[in-house]
Amino acid sequence: MASFAQLGNDLYTGKRSFDIVGRRKLWYTVSAVLIVVSLIGLFGRGINFGIEFRGGSELRVSSVSDLSDYEARASEAVAVEAPEAVATVTLVGSDTIRVQTGELPNQTAEAVRTDLAEAFGVPDSEVTSSFVGPSWGETVTTKAVQALIVFLLLVSLVLAIYFRTWKMAAAALVALLHDLAFTVGIYALLGIEVSPASMIGFLTILGYSIYDTIVVFDKVRENTEQAMDTRRMTYAEAANRAVNQTIIRSINTSVVALLPVGTILVVGIVFIGPGTLLDLAAALFIGIAVGTYSSIFVATPLLVHLREGEDDIQALDKAATKRATRRREHEAQGEEGSPTGEDVDATTVGGGATSTSAAPGQGTARQVHPYAQRGPRNQPKRPPKSRR
Q1: Closest listed residue to residue 61, CA positions, set 110, 106, 127
Q2: Residues 6 or more apart in contact with residue 61 via CB below 8 angstroms
């Protein structure tokens, strides 16, 4: 723990640094691979929508003591009354069996309910039947899409006003869409059922991702303002330093958030089974993890890529590069520079010297008397004072 804390201090002070922005092509490649995997899941297997979205009948058998071959027994009970129906059988918790099918007529649903009670040896009162229409799922989907559009518009507006540049808003939105596409793609690839709770989880991870990205961007803006004043760092170097200064904080925040969500996910898989809690935890766990990645490795490198063509950024990069080149030349000649760390160029003109140690951006030079560099013995003599 001490070494990890020391690493965080070294990254914040600049003693150590990871070249994250400089390797942005690598992160772009990783993100492209993630998106391709997501697209394979989306267009290959498709999204496994829950019964709330596709509609159908659901029957639950509670207090089951004998769970041997429960899938086969439940499917057989459904096939007797509805041969054409496709049954999805799931164990919920430790003693409840959930059977989902397409829409069944009321008489058929009651007959299946009775057969399930007989198949598992439970009273009819322990078997419940319900029907969910697809219109409810369509309403949920429509409202979720509307909420997503409003969220993205408001986020774009707030970021553009706060950071005074639309490019920061664009980079943050790309990171958000990256997180959303990957999370939904993993759901499709693994065949995880998408329920209304999953939709809530998708919207929640967008808020978490934008929060982490804003923290990094705020540090980028602070470092950029400092670089504009001192001309000691390029824009890419200032942005990379911002990522290094916030990376430990991002990791710690994500770990703290993932621990309880991961615990809920494990408990849901092992003990509870499919349900609202598991659906929400799965979306949050995947989204928080990929959101942390995007805020560090996608948003800031993309921001640098978008802004590197601006005139003031190019002027900053040119001045910082020139300053670094002169510093290396002085080091190669064994010169140490001024005590304040500023570069000093001295050239002899007409027997004198010109000092260029003025503050950056002033562009002024202080003329020094030619005798000043030769010591007091060569100073011009003053005329003697007249005696009274």
Answers
A1: 127
A2: 74, 96, 97, 99, 116, 117, 120, 122, 126, 127
pLDDT tens digits, 337-367: 444 444 444 333 333 334 444 444 444 444 4
Residue showing tokens 């129906």: 85
Helix axes 70-81, 106-120, angle to 10 degrees: 150
The whole-number average pLDDT for the span 267-295 is 81
Structure tokens at 12: 């914040």
Question: Of residues 181 and 133, which shows the higher confidence score?
Answer: 181
pTM of the model: 0.70
User: In the CATH scheme, what is the homologous superfamily, with its name and number, of domain 56-132?
Assistant: Ribosomal protein S10 (3.30.70.600)
Angle between the 196-230 and 311-332 helix axes, to the nearest 10 degrees?
60
The class level of CATH for 2-49+136-311 reads mainly alpha
